[in-house]
Design a protein that fits this description.
Bound molecules: shikimate-3-phosphate
CATH superfamily: P-loop containing nucleotide triphosphate hydrolases
Radius of gyration: 15 Å
EC number: 2.7.1.71
Order of helices and strands: EHEHHHEHEHHEH
Oligomer: single chain
Number of domains: 1
Cofactor: Mg(2+)
Subcellular location: Cytoplasm
Pathway: Metabolic intermediate biosynthesis; chorismate biosynthesis; chorismate from D-erythrose 4-phosphate and phosphoenolpyruvate: step 5/7
Main location: cytoplasm
Number of helices: 8
Distance between the termini: 7 Å
CATH architecture: 3-Layer(aba) Sandwich
Number of strands: 5
Structural class: alpha/beta
């Protein structure tokens, strides 16, 4: 891979492996990584589920947009995005402008297995099941695919394998 002059955005549904793969990319490429969710938690001083419960989803989405604007002032970083960040047109446009977008996918069954014990996925509160995951994934699929430069399926693959596929595609 050539010297990274843009950013790499990792997008995809909750549990698609964005954070794990971002860490592996950072390890292999020696390029700094930004975790959007972790940075929002740091900025707000609250867990994601508390932000949703106490301030509401729109507040969270605004925080996400503000963070993305700040992060894209830099070049050459790996940005692991929250699963819903790319759904805002403004955010999707900014990502397209500022880097390569890698979409990680997995089946609803795989996603369920990965997130079922999570207590900090407010979007799935009360709906932690394969059918709901499939339904929400269906609603997001077109946007995910429309913005992606590279698509990598992650089912039954290690972070190393996924990272190899990403780097081969660049
Ligand atoms: C969300 C995904 C989460 C987090 C928030 C909302 C979503 O991030 O940003 O709970 O709408 O898909 P992960 O994709 O890292 O779980």
């Amino acid at each position: 891979m050539k010297k990274l002059e843009e950013n790499i955005f990792l997008i995809g549904f909750m549990g698609a492996g964005k954070s794990t793969v971002a860490a592996e990319l950072e390890r292999q490429l020696h390029i700094p990584r930004a975790e959007m969710d972790a940075l929002i938690v740091e900025r707000e001083g609250m867990a994601i589920s508390d932000i949703f419960a106490e301030k509401g989803e729109t507040y969270f989405r605004d925080a996400e947009t503000a963070l993305l604007k700040d992060l894209t002032e830099k070049k050459g970083i790996i940005i692991s995005c929250g699963g819903g960040a790319v759904m805002r047109d403004e955010n999707a446009a900014l990502m397209k402008q500022c880097g390569k977008i890698v979409l990680l996918t997995a089946t609803p069954e795989t996603i369920y297995e990965r997130v079922k014990d999570s207590t900090d996925r407010p979007i799935l509160n009360g709906n932690m099941n394969v059918d709901y995951i499939r339904e929400l994934m269906e609603k997001r699929k077109d946007r995910y695919l429309a913005v992606a430069d590279v698509v990598v399926a992650t089912d039954q693959k290690s972070a190393e394998e996924i990272t190899r596929e990403i780097l081969a595609a660049f």
